[in-house]
Design goal:
about 130 residues, Rossmann fold, phosphoprotein, five-stranded parallel beta sheet, CheY-like_superfamily
C-alpha cells in the first residue's frame, strides 16, 4: 500500500509519552501518524497535514481540547472526525466534548480495541493488521 493510500491521523496530547504510545500503536496498525503536544500546534498541523482524523486530549495547558475542537469545527466543519482521548470520563466531560464538536469520547488508559473500532467506523481499515 502506498503511503498516500493510508489514512493520516493526528494525535494530540501534552503528555509526549502518551502521544507517542498511541501514535506507535496506530502506525503498527497501518496508519500514517503525526503527533503534536498542544492545541495551538494541533491547529497548525491540521492546516499543514490535512489528516483524515484527529485524536485529541482534553486537559492541555494554554488551549485545552474543548477549545481546540471548537476551533477545528469552526474552520473544518463536520467532515473532520475528532475523537477525545482523556482522563476525563464523567458524564459532564462527555457532554462538554460532544458540545465542543467531538465525534466520540474515549477515557484513558486507552482501550485499543475500542479505538480501532472507532477508526474503522470513521475511516475504514487501512491494513489487514
Amino acid at each position: 500500500m502506498a503511503e498516500s493510500d493510508k489514512n493520516t491521523i493526528l494525535v494530540v496530547d501534552d503528555n509526549q509519552d502518551a502521544a507517542y504510545t498511541v501514535g506507535l500503536f496506530l502506525e503498527l496498525k497501518g496508519y500514517v501518524v503525526h503527533t503534536r503536544n498542544s492545541g495551538k500546534d494541533a491547529l497548525e498541523a491540521v492546516e499543514a497535514l490535512r489528516p483524515e482524523l484527529v485524536i485529541l486530549d482534553l486537559a492541555m495547558p494554554e488551549m485545552d481540547g474543548y477549545e481546540t475542537a471548537t476551533l477545528l469545527r469552526a474552520s473544518h466543519g463536520p467532515a473532520l472526525p475528532i475523537i477525545a482521548l482523556s482522563g476525563y470520563g464523567q458524564q459532564e466531560d462527555i457532554r462538554r466534548s460532544s458540545e465542543a464538536g467531538f465525534n466520540a469520547h474515549l477515557v484513558k488508559p486507552v482501550d485499543f480495541v475500542a479505538l480501532i473500532d472507532l477508526l474503522n467506523s470513521f475511516l475504514g481499515n487501512p491494513s489487514p493488521n
